[in-house]
Amino acid sequence: MEQPDLRLRAFVPAPPKTVYEALTDPAALRVWLAEHADVELPGKYEFWGRYTPDGAEPHQRVLYVDERTIRFAWTVDGVETTSEFRLDEEEDGTLVTLSQTDLPSFEAILADTAGARGALQTFWTLAIANLADYLAGRALTPKCDFTSADLRAEVVIDAAPEAVFESMTQTEQFCRWSGANVEIEPYVGGRFAMGGFDVDPGGVKFVEFEPGRKATLRFADGLTASWELEGSDGKTRLTSVQSGFDPANPPYPGWAGWLAGLAELRRYHELPGWTSIWRQIEVTGVPEEMFSADLG
After folding, report:
1. Domains along the chain?
2. Domain Activator of Hsp90 ATPase homologue 1/2-like C-terminal spans what residues (predicted)?
3. How far is Cα 105 from Cα 98, in angstroms, rounded to an integer?
4. Which among 116, 161, 262, 282 could disulfide-bond with 53, CB atoms 3.0 to 4.6 Å apart, if both were Cys?
């Protein structure tokens, strides 16, 4: 395939044959990837529905298939892109490589002018995170509903609220589990800067901050992102909400990315000897400073 704009590499805890089955069994795809799926290889590989960008109908066309590779054309917003899964065996599991062409510019994504293609990076990040949990027999993280302006999700994390809150608001911990380079000032009026203060000197500001309970961030355009934590029996129910945006143009790329982060946050707290599933996150046009060097 042509040089991709996105390359994700992640370790999943299953042999290549099992991973391939999860990638090609329509029933499995309907659990971890999409609302609808129809697969009859080598001729058909389709998925669509509300959890798929531009997903009213299937828009995929198979290009190449073997026992370790699935490559398909995917038309999104009228632009034909190419997506590819590649599986490589590793000790105790499989390295899954997802490559994607024809992403819009990073500037267009930040400006919310990229359309459905602007969500492809975070769509795939969340999908692979859920694939890893599906193969491990774990509960999945809620998918992004690309038909809804109600950006709200709940997850239960097997850890106390104080520990979860600290991992979401302390720079060192946040960078470790998220794979993102972030600097955080954990107090009302403090900044939350993706890429660090050198990249984003103004940062997003905390307008609410109650340790162990809740926090709210406000962006310059009026968007707010909040999370509330409720503890019970040593576990945390974490509710995340984004609001304050134009309901005709919800910020799906950022929301799907946050959901993908929640998947890794859950693993960080719940898996003994945790290491990130991510081996590589490479996106054309995104500053290297946005990503932490501390990938698995």
Report:
1. 6-136 (3.30.530.20), 151-244 (3.30.530.20)
2. 14-135, 158-264
3. 19
4. 116
